[in-house]
Design brief:
mainly alpha, 11 helices, elongated
């Protein structure tokens, strides 16, 4: 530990002297020239910063309207105009538009179910049993066809969100890790390196190749199990749905616990290490030790400011990516539950059960999106917090 601190002292002392070579001239230098050198250092790093991958991602997924680099500059300047003031209203407008889009389809489902129920109740009058069964099947198939069109779109949209989160992770954390290393957050950097790799390669792959097929199986079983009264697949469907839910809960729960625990330990160790270096510089380096300690703060502050600004933009992109699709899927799921309740008094109970089961599978999709987004959010917060206390 002592050798590690000594190496950091030597490296940071050389780098700080290079940046602040005139700091030994007089104490007035720290008052007049240092703030300007900090600003120059920050913008010099920002000019060399390549945010092209973020620009391409924003254009591909439509998660940010404007230049990413200009947004980072605005944050560095303390501007509050990074977010559009019409963001919330645009979100509600998009939800209303989506609701209007599927409302006619669900009204058609209600009408078909009522017509089928009325004809079925007329069986004893003028319809034979076989004719009634045919009518039930036609109504069931019609309802299924209408609903599956929307479920297919939402299912692929959820898969697209997970792919987007993986892509965003792959372009975010290499940059964040670089600034974490520059700011002296070595332990936190090692932790986030492991966790970001686990997120992209383990969590996202498990969701794509295990959880999504399980949800698809729930959808299929919800349909097949209600085609005929003689086919009862409710237990199998509940078992598959429970497996997917438990798998999500275990993955997200364990990952969040490990991330939180390792994050707190790593950040605190880095803060202690940085403060130990600053104390050694100011206390044991004669004449210029105080200036070196202050100069180290300026070097760390510049990197941390850019890191945190980029992290804030990534959070905006994250919420823009997951929030609207998750709310759209949840809204359609609730609409299916409402439709199932409306048609239950007179409609075929198999149709009601199918709609309710499909609604449950959509809620699993929402859980996947929000769960993956939440652990990504925690990782970004961890990366933003790393090194901040060390410069105080």
């Amino acid at each position: 530990m002592r050798n590690n601190i000594l190496i950091k002292i030597i490296v940071l002392a050389i780098f700080t002297v290079t940046i602040c070579g005139a700091c030994t001239t007089s104490s007035a230098y720290a008052d007049s020239e240092t703030p300007q050198s900090i600003e120059d250092s920050v913008y010099e790093q920002l000019d060399k910063l390549d945010l092209g991958d973020f620009e391409k991602f924003a254009d591909k997924y439509g998660v940010y309207d404007g230049s990413i680099k200009i947004a980072v500059e605005k944050i560095l300047n303390g501007s509050t105009n990074v977010l559009s003031s019409s963001g919330i209203s645009s979100l509600f407008d998009a939800l209303i538009k989506d609701f209007i889009g599927f409302l006619p389809a669900l009204l058609s489902v209600i009408v078909i179910a009522f017509i089928g129920g009325i004809l079925k109740n007329s069986k004893s009058g003028f319809l034979k049993g076989s004719t009634s069964d045919v009518i039930d099947f036609v109504c069931f198939a019609s309802v299924l066809t209408i609903v599956l069109v929307f479920i297919k779109d939402y299912f692929y949209e959820a898969k697209n969100i997970i792919s987007g989160l993986t892509e965003l992770s792959d372009i975010t954390f290499p940059l964040m890790l670089t600034f974490m290393e520059i700011s002296g957050s070595g332990n936190a950097m090692n932790t986030i390196t492991f966790l970001s790799g686990t997120f992209s390669n383990v969590i996202m792959n498990a969701i794509t190749f295990v959880v999504f097929p399980l949800i698809l199986a729930v959808i299929i079983l919800s349909v097949v199990g209600n085609l005929s009264a003689s086919v009862n697949l409710n237990r199998l469907k509940k078992s598959v749905s429970s497996t997917a839910s438990w798998l999500l809960g275990i993955m997200f729960g364990l990952y969040t616990i490990v991330l939180t625990g390792c994050g707190i330990v790593g950040i605190n160790m880095d803060n202690i290490s940085i403060k130990a270096i600053k104390f050694a510089l100011s206390g044991y380096v004669p004449v210029i030790g105080g200036y070196l300690s202050s100069g180290m703060d300026y070097v760390l502050a510049g990197s941390i400011m850019i890191k945190n600004s980029v992290g804030f933009i990534v959070l905006i992109m994250l919420f823009s990516l997951i929030l609207l699709p998750a709310l759209k899927i949840l809204l359609f799921s609730l609409a299916l539950d409402l439709t199932s309740g409306i048609i239950s008094p007179i409609g075929d109970q198999r149709q009601c059960e199918m709609l309710s089961s499909l609604s449950g599978s959509l809620k699993l999709l929402v859980a996947v999106i929000l769960g993956a987004g939440f652990i990504f959010f925690i990782m970004i917060l961890f990366a933003i917090s790393a090194g901040n206390a060390g410069i105080v």
